[in-house]
Specification:
The structure is a homodimer. Chain A is built from 7 helices and no strands. By secondary structure, chain A is mainly alpha-helical. In chain A, helix 3 runs antiparallel to helix 4. The two termini of chain A are about 35 Å apart. Chains A and B meet through helix 1, helix 3, helix 4, helix 5 and helix 6 of A and helix 1, helix 3, helix 4, helix 5 and helix 6 of B.
């Protein structure tokens, strides 16, 4: 990522911080995990429409709107003590690396069909690991995830 | 944004760059503005489901998936010479500032109803400006947006 791109992203996050801060906008500040659903639906539909029409300036604009919703939902959940935007970045990064060992761990593949099988196998393993994580034990009863 | 959050975002973008690079993943690399629509639909629906269930670890994970789709679509369009991720950041930032003069330009408001009216007025002005921008003139025939 170029320095200019990083700066632009930092500026965007600063704007959103101000928007959700003490002197921010009452509309944005009062959004919740429930209220935001209808905006997520409409913004993702607008992005789909722009993609279908190949309306490039509009694709760019709608990507920004969906991105704002993603950051806003992360902020709502940070305020509620659930997770932060940093957690979102870290988790998707870890998942991309884990699901692409042919790019990040030097494994080889013959065909794209093999790749699809490998992807499915990794997903199954993730589900299996998640089950082990949430199973109660003598030392740790309940959901530890 | 904290330094750690910036680092995590930079790491994510580096991973995606590698994924879409020369030695990257054939599946991710072959996606287009058309092919990506079905994944955008399913990922945004999964985020909606997680929000409805208030499944916080899943909201975090699905936000990451939608974010990846946003960055992937931006990469597709950069490759096609349309716009970059930096353009997405810059445009949404400009729009947020433009639509919130009560936060960024010191204008005042009485009620939330006034705010909604102001928002609508700004949107109408944007549409008007866009029409002027794309109207043909003697010096510049056709779409200049």
């Amino acid at each position: 990522m170029s320095i200019k791109t990083k700066q632009t992203f930092t500026e965007l996050l600063e704007t959103i911080k101000q928007l959700l801060g003490e002197e921010g906008c009452p509309w944005d500040k009062k959004q919740t995990n429930e209220s935001i659903i209808k905006y997520l639906k409409s913004e993702s539909q607008e992005l789909i429409d722009a993609l279908e029409k190949k309306d490039y300036p509009n694709i760019c604009e709608e990507l920004g709107d969906v991105l704002y919703i993603v950051i806003l939902i992360s902020s709502i959940n940070k305020k509620e003590g659930q997770f932060s935007l940093e957690d979102v970045f870290r988790e998707v990064n870890a998942k991309l690396v884990r699901r692409h060992p042919h790019v990040f761990a030097g494994t080889s593949y013959e065909t794209e069909e093999d790749l699809a099988k490998q992807w499915e196998k990794i997903k199954q393993q993730e589900k299996h690991d998640a089950k082990i994580q949430i199973a109660p034990t003598n030392n740790n009863k309940g959901n530890i995830k």
